[in-house]
Amino acid sequence: MTVNGRPVKQSVSPHLRLLDFLREELHWTGSKEGCGAGECGSCSVFVDGVLMKSCLMPVAKAQHSEIETIEGLEEQGKLNVLQQAFQKTGASQCGYCIPGMMMAATAALRANPYAGREEIKERLGGNICRCTGYQKMFEATELARDVMNGKLTIELLKEEKEEGPFIGSNSFRIDTSSKVTGALKYAGDMVMPQMLHMQVLRSPYPHAEILELDTSEAEAMAGVEAVVTHRDVQGIDGFGVFTDDQPVLARGKVRYVGDAIAAVAAEDVLTAKEALKKIKVRYRELVAITKTEDAIKTGAVIIHDDVPDNIVMHIPIRKGNVDKGMAEADFVIEETYYTQPVEHAYLEPEAGLAYLDADGTLVIQSPSQNITHHRQKLAKILDMPVNRVRMIMSPVGGGFGGKEDMHYQGILALAVLKSRRPVRYVFTREESIIASAKRHPFSIKYQLGLNREGLIQASKIHMLADAGAYNCSTEGVMRKAAILAAGPYAIENLMVDAIGVYTNNTPSGAMRSFGAMQSQFATECHLDLCAEKLEMDPVELRRKNFFKEGDETHTRQELGSVSMLEVFNSALDLADWETGISNSRGATRSDLAQSGNRPPCTLGARQFPLETISTGQAA
Ligand code: FES
Ligand code: FES
Question: How far apart are the C-alpha atoms of 369 and 145, rounded to whole Å?
Fold first, then answer.
């Protein structure tokens, strides 16, 4: 075959995927693996001019083909027009999807140099981006199209150098060039001489005692350099964002499906996988708790011995006299709301490369969102001075809070210290979903007492959150959920309980908004429900109850200045709220079908001609 115009001749297993051949054998790491299942498009390459997902193609099928990867798009060492357009529009954030997206956009313009927005959308439809919302990618492709067709000049793609402050000016992101060329190295792209590959044995049970763990057969296998278990931990075995309740590798017990038990570092991934099969684990299954209500029942199975009530964190807030407030209310309206666990689905699965540097310092490169914290934890776990542990944050291919936890860096460290060789570990998408923390699912019992005018007299909010098997960020999430539970509304009599409990589900951790989303969802749904019961415009109900200057928050800070009403009114104006009919909810109302009426609520985003500041945040 040829790759980017260069002939390539190599003997490999015919079953090897084209993606692995390009990345692991030829070290063209621009093409990324996001899913390994043909869904995300991050591995897209051209095979004989046809856009293909290289994770689905055996290399044998491409053996006489011309392959083009992202690295082949540059023209004479310079960004091509499309790459410049992506740079100009700021179409990349974390950048992990960008190589695949560039290939799809290239395919779109090759197929139809005059493609319109809808066709571009259609042709980029096989590629997933978790960060950008796609609009800038469509804009970039249109911009490139118009420059290529001579409708716009190439000068337009240059950076506008502006004097003065950065805020409000249109600067290029300094890392865009490496993202649009595929040159940026994420942890899974990194290699070192003598590097081993790690695989992890994970629990098939949600809750079980480990009666026996025998790694001798795996250790004896050719190509295996190290097998690590909890027995290799020299220091204090435990990590977490708030409490150190998670062992690096299961210690006598597994607490969720996916809990790490042992790991193998071997010459290649296949050998490491084979060795995992040789590890013998004898389990005694325990009753698993999968519902939060069951976790707090008297006599419930205990998940962590030192937490007999299974309560990770309880944050109460008390203000005024809720019973009196409810008794004096004209209406008391109750409902229970549920939110589900949410997978972060960052396009870059977890990965890390660890090694000992020339001075014997342990170095770990991974897309960790919390390197200082992880460094301290690792030093304690490994019983090493903190200055002998170095964490380097590799480019983060999307995090959204999900890479704050140290789920695998400790295992990598153990494997390096045992093998004395560099070790790399790259999660599969399946492993990422099984093993990493999710957004906390909540059940929220909401009780609101109101008078006839719609003024809130009292509020009682009881939130039960599923922390899963380990604390991770539960403590912080409970604090935030409790503080924000009652929303931006002045309430004299308030009782909030935010309780995070252990279960045998996948751990819950940090995710964007950190507990606020769940409580706000319940609050705003409940206000809509109350408005309906009171036959009042939901907008008016909110206006009546907003905090005002001089009010005290639910946690007793005096508010010196409150702009809630202005912000709310501006949002309503921009949404043309008042042109719709009042008090309409849901999609089933027949009056919604009439022209000019307010459309039903849908999840999504609307664009308004507002000036916005983009932070380019992806992590
Ligand atoms: S489509 Fe190939 S990695 Fe996702
Ligand atoms: S920029 Fe697309 S996944 Fe992050």
Answer: 37
Would 134 be classed as within a structural domain? yes
Q: Name the residue of 33, 94, 432 to mutate for ligand 2: max ligand atoms within 8 A of Cβ.
A: 94
φ and ψ at 226, to 5 degrees?
A: -160, 140
Q: Tell me whether residue 47 is in a domain.
A: yes
In the reported structure, the alpha carbon of residue 438 is separated from the centroid of ligand 2 by a whole-number distance in angstroms of 19
Q: Give the residue from 467, 543, 454 showing the smallest Cα distance to 505.
A: 467
> From the first residue on, what is the mean pLDDT of each consecutive set of 10 residues in the chain (619 residues)?
95 94 97 97 98 97 96 93 95 96 98 97 96 94 98 91 72 90 97 98 98 98 98 96 96 98 97 98 98 97 97 97 97 97 97 97 96 96 97 96 94 98 98 96 98 97 98 96 96 98 97 93 96 94 96 93 93 79 45 46 34 35
CATH of residue 503: 3.30.365.10
Asked if residue 133 lies in contact with residue 604, where contact means CB atoms within 8 angstroms, the answer is no
Q: How far is the CA of 32 from the centre of ligand 1 (A)?
A: 8
Which residues, other chains included, contact 346 with Cβ-Cβ below 8 Å and sequence gap of 6+?
A: 94, 96, 130, 396, 397, 398, 399, 400, 402, 403
Helices (H), 182-240: 216-219
Residues 313 and 418 in one domain: no
Q: Judge whether 569 lies within some domain.
A: no
How many whole angstroms separate alpha carbon 605 and alpha carbon 575?
Answer: 11
Ligand 1 centroid distance, CA of 41 (Å): 5
CATH code (residue 177): 1.10.150.120
pLDDT for position 581: 54
Q: Is the CB of 33 under 6 A from ligand 1?
A: yes
User: 416 and 455 share a domain?
Assistant: no
Which atom of ligand 2 is least distant from the CA of 346? Answer: 3
**Residue listed under structure tokens 């004096």:** 328
The verdict on 309 and 243 lying in the same domain is no
Contact (Cβ atoms closer than 8 angstroms) between residue 128 and residue 96: no
pLDDT of residue 611: 34
Q: Cα 87 to chain center, whole Å?
A: 24
**Nearest Cα residue to atom 4 of ligand 2:** 94
In whole angstroms, give the CA distance from residue 205 to residue 259.
Answer: 9
ipTM above 0.95, yes or no: yes
HSE, side-chain direction, 13 A CA sphere, residue 330: 10
pLDDT of res. 580: 63
Atom of ligand 1 nearest to the CA of 19: 2
Domain boundary among 17, 44, 72: 72
* CATH code, domain carrying 258: 3.90.1170.50
**Domain that includes residue 335, residue range:** 303-342+438-534
Residue type, 163: E
Q: Is the distance from the beta carbon of residue 347 to the nearest atom of ligand 1 less than 6 Å?
A: no
Q: Which residues line ligand 2 (CB under 6 A)?
A: 92-97, 129-132, 347, 398, 618
